[in-house]
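Can't paste images in this forum, so I'm doing it all in text. The chain is below; anyone willing to post the predicted structure tokens underneath?
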Amino acid sequence: MSAQTARETMPFQTEVKQLLKLMIHSLYSNKEIFLRELVSNASDAADKLRFEALTDGALYEGDSNLRIRVTFDKDKRTITISDNGIGMSRNEVIENIGTIAKSGTQQFLASLTGDQKKDSKLIGQFGVGFYSAFIVADKITLITRRAGVGAEHGVRWESAGEGEFTLETVEKTNRGTDVVLHLREGEDDFLDGFRLRHIIRKYSDHISIPVLMPQEGEKAEGDETVNRASALWARSKKDIKDEEYNEFYKHIGHDWEDPLLHVHNQVEGNYAYTTLFYVPKHAPFDLWDRERRHGVKLYVRRVFIMDDAEQLLPSYLRFVKGVVDSDDLPLNVSREILQHNKVIDAIRGASVKRILGALEDLAKNDAEKYQVFWDQFGKVMKEGPGEDAANREQIAKLLRFASTHTDDATQTVSLADYVSRMKEGQDKIYYVTAETFTAAKNSPHLEIFRKKGVEVLLLSDRVDEWLSSHLTEFDGKSLQAVTKGELNLGGLEDEKEKAEQQKAAESSKDFLVRIKEALGDDKVQDVRATHRLTTSPACLVVNDYDMSTHLQRLLKEVGQSAPGTKPILEVNPTHPLVTRFREEQDSERFKDWAQLLFEQALLSEGGHLEDPASFVGRLNKLLVELSR
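Text version of the structure:
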């Protein structure tokens, strides 16, 4: 029976159709990148074979000399990229090429802007390099056979990039994959040996397996190795040019742009290992996807082991791309072994410190470049103090915030900056959390601080509540939420101010009791006079160790239960509205005034009313009475 079967036509996944449309309409401004992507895929296939062969040497099928071969045919107008790597089964071809088996696809497509330059960066982050071949090809034929599966049966995949592809079983005696590009009209520039060699050396010199091309010339015989074919990270740092570092990053990071910085270390001692880490210039669109894979590849003695080793770096550094190559781990290391391994623990600990140290140097020596980093990855870095207690102090130095010092939403203020500007007598770092920067900036809780010229950090990222619960001090100064506890400004207030506050609280005692009775125990746990307000009539606070009302709202929004902590209503006894309200003798109207004061305070900090219609009715009724 022949291995060849009837051709089957199948549709692309909807998302692939959309991506193909972008590719075919020349999304990339640099067309030659297609060769880099296909060589990179072939290199990955070789790495995967080498790894699987650790436990099943028969997969080599008697040929352990891994290689990639690039050829072209001017008459047929084709370019072929062949490898003898792991290859693909029929199901793997459908999964890897007919669909995009990656979460966040819709989010990616929604992120496209129509601007070719911006969208090319997104495409690169998404890692859909195979489809870039359609920039130069109007048809692609892929013939592949998975190592160790079937003696001669392979799979032919073919598509013109118009919404469907064909599959058929064919005879293929050698393992691996051949990708044949049938060039579009006008792309004959790529049918040139010198041009192809230049592209391979430019983009793929760092590939650790040889990329071969037939020798050219009258007496030329056999193939020549075009690239350097050595692991870049294993070479001495002084022998590596910045351009080589950048191209290697683009290979492992599937990015079109140079990285923001790189950190290369070769360690010898109790453990011998090499690390090469990169920080990208732009956050990937799926940075917040809980299922996204980390970007660090693990090698053991130059042998690829796995490409999503999350044990190598903590989650808050998940944006880092790179390579770890250990001389001390066993070649058959598994994910389970990685979770409890002294070598991995040592590499992880040292790697984190080196990356944080490099970011510290960047912040110190190039504030503008560091701001680019912070704008892209700041929210992720704010997870650090809660995840990594051992490096909490170092992470804290890297954090940036908005503050009342500039009233600008851009997060540029470090905790060290804040401490350097603290007032005489100030012993705390003050901050406020809110749903938006505008809400934080205009919070009534800031009134006394603005009056006294005391800086307050304005925290409006969702992660800030998590951050503030774990970062409680910096440089010996405690961090204090201005919405929690009784306000004690310590040395920032003189004795005269304290006496006036005490006098106002004493004279308002009966009035405050009336308000609490009017609101009832279901609304507030207490009502007290405040000195944190200068222009607002009231605000809501919680006790020092209670969950903030902002965090309670965030938990409810994501469907999680939050403790029913009742707030404290603080009233400004000197506010004109409060003094008018204080004179009210009618019990029903007094109750309306009390409700209005509470609801106004709730709204001013971004809260939501349980019964907006009743609030509007109450407000209208009181306005009518006041206008008479």
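The first strand starts at residue 8 and ends at 11. The mean pLDDT is 86.
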